[in-house]
Design brief:
The chain has 239 residues and is an alpha/beta fold. It is built from six helices and twelve strands. The chain has one domain: Metallo-dependent phosphatases (Purple Acid Phosphatase, chain A, domain 2). The radius of gyration is 17 Å and the shape is globular.
Length: 239
């Protein structure tokens, strides 16, 4: 039976060659080829891969076409969420019009895969984080809470629930934010997120069980560019 995987922060740049990721460290060397190889090894055509943000360095939708085509050639269905660097993602209607077959976009709604529904939003720097600035971040944080609520309200009670964020819903010291509190009434089984890069940031990423929800950190460089198994639709169990 199909499985659900997750991997964030692909940072592809087939049409933006000056954005090669290896300038951020040797762990990013040849990362798209490594991603392609690992993905093909474990993901089947019947599976779903969640991609919670920072998909492409493109500035415009036309520039993102090559990166999305690369994803479209990989096995399985893909569900995309906008990240803070996805400037090419403006109108979700326009994005959906040009997505290759088998790729879907999540924004203020939900996506159903067998007996699982996925909700989510990009998120933002949380007030519990040391990097939060009231004057800069409060408005965006509150807006993302509203977007999350819109998405959660569409979840059906007869399904299992997974939520995607791009930003972590916890602070770097493990303090939960309002994003976490909003999930509780919806019996969310799993959350996936990315955004954090570098060994120190990876070490601060909350992973594990909190309030009966399992949180998965899925930044590509933390996973060595191999999609992380999240859910088995046959057993209805976390992986």
């Amino acid at each position: 039976m199909p499985r659900i995987y997750a991997i964030a922060d692909l940072h592809m740049s087939f049409s933006v060659p000056n954005k090669a990721m290896d300038v951020f460290g040797e762990q990013w060397a040849n990362h798209t080829n490594r991603l392609q190889s690992a993905w093909k090894e474990i993901v089947s055509e019947d599976d779903l891969v969640l991609v919670p943000g920072d998909i492409s360095w493109a500035m415009y939708l036309s520039e993102a076409a090559a990166d999305l085509a690369f994803l479209g050639e990989l096995p399985g269905k893909k569900l995309l969420l906008r990240g803070n660097h996805d400037f090419w993602w403006s109108s979700v209607t326009q994005v959906r019009r040009m997505l290759p077959e088998g790729i879907y976009a999540l924004q203020n709604d939900t996506f159903r895969f067998h007996n699982v529904e996925i909700a989510g939003t990009r998120g933002w720097t949380v007030p519990e984080s040391s990097g939060f600035k009231e004057s800069d971040d409060r408005k965006l944080f509150e807006r993302e809470k509203l977007r999350l609520q819109l998405s959660l309200n569409r979840l059906q009670p007869d399904t299992e629930h997974i939520v995607m964020f791009h930003y972590p819903p916890f602070s770097e010291t493990g303090k939960p934010s309002d994003f976490v509190s909003l999930l509780k009434p919806y019996s969310v089984k799993a959350v996936v997120y990315g955004h954090l890069h570098g060994k120190k940031a990876h070490a601060s990423a909350f992973t594990g069980l909190y309030d009966e929800t399992y949180y998965h950190f899925a930044a590509a460089d933390a996973l060595d560019f191999c999609p992380k198994p999240i859910w088995d639709t046959e057993t209805g169990m976390l992986l």
